[in-house]
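Lab notebook, bench 4. The sequencing result for the construct came back, and we need a structural model before the next group meeting so we can plan mutations. Quick request posted to the team channel:

Model the 3D structure of this chain.
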Amino acid sequence: MLSARRDAIVLAILIVAVMLLIWNGSAFFHNLPLGEEQGPGIRLASTALTLNVALILFGWRRYVDLQHEAEMRAEHERRAVVLATTDAITGLFNRKGFADRAGQLCTDAAQRGENLVVISFQIHRFKVINDQHGYETGDRLLKTLSVALSDELGPDAIIARLSGDEFAVALALRPDEMERVDELADAVLRTVTRPLLFEDKIIQVGSFAGIASGPAAETRIPDILRRADIAMDHARNGRVARPVWFDAGMERALVAHSEIEQGIRFGLDHDLFVPYFEPQVALDTGEIVGFEVLARWIHPLSGEIGPDVFIPVAEEIGLIGRLSEQVIGQALREAATWDPKIKISVNISPMQLADGWLAQRIIKLLADTGFPANRLVIEVTESSLFADIELARTIVTSLKNQGIRLALDDFGTGFSSLSHLRSLPFDIIKIDRSFVTNINTKRESSAIVRAVQTMAASLPVPVCVEGIENEDSYKTVVRLGCEIGQGWYFGKPMPAEQARELLKDRVRTADQPLRNAASR
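Done. Here's the predicted structure in token form:
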């Protein structure tokens, strides 16, 4: 608008200048005396004519300059639009470009009565490629994949790089073409995961893909892209190597996950996570020798919630350390006044075991609660030791130096139990409940428990058997010579006040199991 106005002004100046030039030129030639000297009027007319010519030349030059400026501005605006909608590395659309172009595709498809399909996919371990081979190789990989995808899917597909390792494809298909979607998604995964040779290096990545579709007339791009992303996340979390279709259950699970996450944050700020105590019993005497601390979430609306609901979410969002320390602190503060013979066992998450400051944090908890170190038992699972055995050995050694005891939890479910027993100074071996559940129906389970007990006796290390839930299992583990047992046969996990009541009369015999007292 402004450029057109400016052009009109310049054109008007040129027209006026030409008219003045014609008028002055006419006057000049009409009044020019032949054969006589030119007087002052002639010189004035000559000067006016010269000025008009100069004005015309100036106006024309300015007009040309303005035209050039307008062309440059239009080019800059075009480049700005390209930069705003295009990924700089791959040349594909970026998130904004995908939204704009897919939105137009959706509008056109709605007029034709077609469906819109979005395939969201992620390059698995792309960061590893950058770390191992450098960012130049990573960029080259992205460019190669973008070209291969464009060739594979054709010009009708809208392909975008949404972020560092996430991509999306949008297509419009007729209802009778929807069976092609799985083939197209498989082609995407096949193209992305194909081995590539860069100089002397073979580069190959994995990929996870999610699919969402719907009638174009009823679809919004942000919604269908979000659903495809949810399906892709489902494939990634489940390590599913094939494309996964979105269904409403995934969205409901995501909403529930979000509610649990928000509830965890609120619960930590308002002390809604509390310790429950599961008794551990000396099998030969029936005497309570300790308790395992288990976390419970006392939800304002839902009541008591078990750890299987919130522990995985707390680990995922990085709050398991804070939650664990909060519950352990409460348990140690409560148990500090109990009989000094009672041991308190607490579980350490694999994520916590990767924290180099874990030993210092536990020692601080002991100092803050006044709980004796020799009454604390730290339980770690075999699987948590695999990530960094050297760091685990350092943490365990630091804890042992403070007098804290160490238990190997879920023994028999890992892959290198014997090597762990040799390399780390465990004080207790806990046999996983999966072996006890079938101890009287499967000969293999009974044989494994017997073998573990024999091996532990030779170390010597006491064995604690988890999952004793009936009298037959109780009698069997006693017959096999196991020292300590825990399970619902002796009492379910209970709040602190019930544990205190139970300890008032803690001596039990095998004929009077603790389950009777715990159920009072």
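The longest strand covers residues 288-299.
Will bring this to the meeting.
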